[in-house]
Design goal:
heterodimer, A: 74 residues, mainly alpha, 65% helix, B: 324 residues, alpha+beta, six-stranded mixed β-sheet, 7 helices, 27 strands, globular
Chain lengths: 74, 324
């Protein structure tokens, strides 16, 4: 299940400098782009925008990304 | 698959929706219809093939419920993902060396809904003997005009029971050498940060005896993304690349392959066939694939690959998932 966009875990996964490895190429590329965006603009507003984009992505692909979600959020 | 142009024309007249790759003079002869195309004479069928007499034809995966074909000039490329269907995929062909190519490469990661909407495609090219003499071209099957300076897209809507996903096959991994970062983005680099220290990039590559047949590689959370070397000019102190480098990305020179290039390519590609795939001309050349048997990843051999954004030295494929 995709955590709600308001779930604080989104902030944790987007801001941590982890070496998380997605299996999905698209998920990896998307996360990299979001982290580049946050490196350029770490404002709370941009963080919310990035969370919304990540949430939308995993919501759309929830079925095919269910294993990715488990590994990402535990 | 590679087909005779007459047969391709019949398929178009019969209403088939196709993505076509081949020589300019063959594309120019195809009739009006629901197809897009790009120039390139290199292909992987059951082996590496160079031909100006056959066309590579890709059918649209998943039998889309609707298809729309659009061309985008350099000022409107960001509309590609906006115009893409909510559930489906977009096939995109962009001419190598065009302003559209360079703008797409730099800006695609920032387009609205990039990554949310799959965009698969390739960069059209020419026979290497024709570099500087012929222009890479793309064509919209409705107006049949061969263009050097627009991107052509086929937006394909899928039923709710299907989703499209893009996959990447990459021979290369980041090596264990210096971390390379860049303060300036783009295809041409003068300076880089080597482990945080500012250096001129061309002399650095010479100093470390970099094998520039291998790319720089960035690990995007498990996805290795290459930036391939085009030219190192010590006189002009500039390195030109086949894809842009981005700020806030950590690159390393690729690790050496643990077997000959050709064998490494065969191992990475495997035998699986995909509904649509394309592979990089650099792998074709460095792997000496001309005439060699190749099992998987059949499709056009291109001057760049598109998996949401421009990639280098990879094989990219589009796959379909049937939802329960």
């Amino acid at each position: 299940m995709v955590p709600y966009a308001s779930d604080p875990r989104w902030k944790v996964v987007l801001l941590r400098k982890s070496s998380h490895q997605f299996v999905s190429a698209t998920a990896g590329m998307m996360f990299a782009r979001l982290q580049r965006s946050l490196a350029s603009d770490p404002s709370p507003e941009n963080l919310q925008t990035c969370i919304a984009q990540a949430h939308a992505f995993f919501t759309k692909y929830e079925v095919v990304m269910k294993d990715e979600l488990v590994r990402l959020f535990g | 698959m590679l087909e005779d142009p007459t047969r391709v024309a019949q398929r178009i007249i019969g209403g088939e929706r196709l993505m076509v790759a081949g020589d300019e003079h063959l594309l120019a002869q195809l009739p009006e219809g629901q197809w897009i195309g790009g120039t390139i004479p290199y292909f992987v069928s059951d082996r590496g093939v160079t031909t100006r007499d056959l066309l590579h034809v890709a059918e649209l995966p998943g039998n889309p419920t609707s298809v729309s074909i659009r061309s985008y000039d350099v000022s409107h490329l960001e509309r590609i993902t906006a115009d893409a269907p909510e559930n489906g995929y977009t096939l995109l062909i962009v001419p190598f060396g065009s302003d559209a190519h360079y703008r797409f490469a730099r800006e695609a990661p920032e387009y609205p809904e990039t990554f949310l909407k799959p965009v698969f495609g390739w960069i059209s090219g020419v026979h290497l003997n024709d570099l500087g003499k012929a222009s890479p071209l793309v064509v919209d099957g409705f107006n049949r005009k061969l263009c050097p300076d627009v991107a052509v897209a086929m937006h394909c809507t899928l039923s709710a029971k299907q989703q499209a996903l893009i996959g990447i096959i990459n021979l290369f991994e980041p090596g264990t050498g210096d971390e390379l970062t860049f303060e300036e983005e783009g295809f041409a680099v003068e300076y880089c940060l080597v482990n945080g220290q500012r250096r001129r990039f061309a002399p650095y590559l010479t100093e470390v005896k970099a094998d520039t047949s291998r790319p720089m590689v960035a690990n995007y959370f498990g996805t290795n993304v290459n930036v391939s070397f085009q030219n190192t000019d010590l006189d002009k102190q500039r390195v030109t690349l086949y894809a842009p480098v981005f700020r806030h990305v950590s690159y390393r020179l690729a690790a050496p392959l643990n077997k000959p290039y050709e064998a490494a390519y065969a191992d990475a590609i495997g035998e699986k066939q995909y509904p649509v795939a394309c592979s990089c001309i650099l792998n074709y050349l460095y792997g000496n694939l001309e005439g060699k048997m190749v099992s998987g990843g059949r499709g056009a051999v291109t001057f760049g690959e598109i998996a949401h954004q421009l990639l280098n030295q990879t094989t990219v494929y589009l796959d379909l998932i049937e939802l329960a």
